[in-house]
Specification:
Layout lengths: L2 H17 L9 H8 L4 E2 L1 E8 L2 E7 L2 E5 L4 E7 L4 H8 L1 E6 L5 H6 L7 H6 L4 E3 L5 E3 L4 E13 L2 E13 L5 E4 L2 E4 L4
Antiparallel strand pairs: 1-11, 2-3, 2-6, 4-5, 5-10, 6-9, 7-8, 9-10, 11-12
The protein binds flavin mononucleotide.
Flavin mononucleotide binds next to β3 and β5.
Length: 187
């Protein structure tokens, strides 16, 4: 390998080093969000019975499977989110995996106002699972969960749910990537 080649390699290494943020500068919240935004996710709506017969939902993409035996999932909920005390109280919740046509539904459950008129405009309908958990009627899949553990982690609470029932309707899912909604494309 010639000297010129060595110089070139060094330069490249420095560039990678800088880009990977390994220098001793503190990671900012913006950089953290940008880095995590590189991980593509689906979009779910967490639903809970707020009062008898009344349903509250929150859009969440911090959702993942946890365990097969027992069948567990988790969702991370902001400490300030209004749904958090409802989850602690009810101990049961639904997860609806949104379809690619449901960006409006995702936006609706990510904003503060939830009212019957807006839900009519979005043609939102709920159904109750045999376990008495509300889920969105129209979704790629719906899970009925009971809260088995909660862990405070920084400014979020990790809600661990035991999956008691699951239904798959199919269809293409809505994706979230780099802060934007995306759709799946076939190879
Ligand atoms: C695509 C998307 C994903 C989100 N994921 C989460 C999440 O996983 N956990 C969470 O607490 N909030 C999440 N949010 C924010 C909540 O939907 C909601 O806006 C926020 O908790 C405000 O709730 P509040 O109206 O009760 O204050 C997400 C929002 C969007 C648009």
């Amino acid at each position: 390998m010639g000297a010129a080649q060595v110089e070139e390699d060094k330069g490249e290494e420095c560039e990678i080093f800088k880009n990977s943020k390994m220098m001793a500068t503190a990671l900012t919240a913006r950089e953290f969000r940008n880095a995590l935004g590189q991980f593509a996710t689906g979009v779910t709506v967490v639903t809970v019975e707020r009062e008898p017969g009344s349903i509250f939902g929150m859009t969440a993409n911090a959702f993942t499977s946890v365990s097969l035996n027992p069948m567990l999932i988790l969702v991370c909920v902001d400490e300030r989110a209004r749904i958090l005390p409802m989850l602690h109280k009810r101990r049961r919740f639904g997860i609806s995996v949104l379809k690619q046509s449901q960006q409006g539904v995702s936006e609706y459950f990510a904003q503060p106002e939830q009212d019957a008129e807006a839900e009519r405009r979005l043609a939102l309908r709920y159904r109750w699972t045999p376990e008495g958990v509300p889920v969105l009627e129209d979704a790629v899949a719906q899970l009925s969960c009971s809260v088995v553990a909660t862990h405070v982690a920084g400014d979020h609470t990790i809600i661990v749910g035991k999956v008691e029932d699951a239904e798959i309707q199919g269809g293409e899912p809505l994706l979230f990537f780099r802060g934007e909604y995306r759709h799946i494309a076939r190879q």
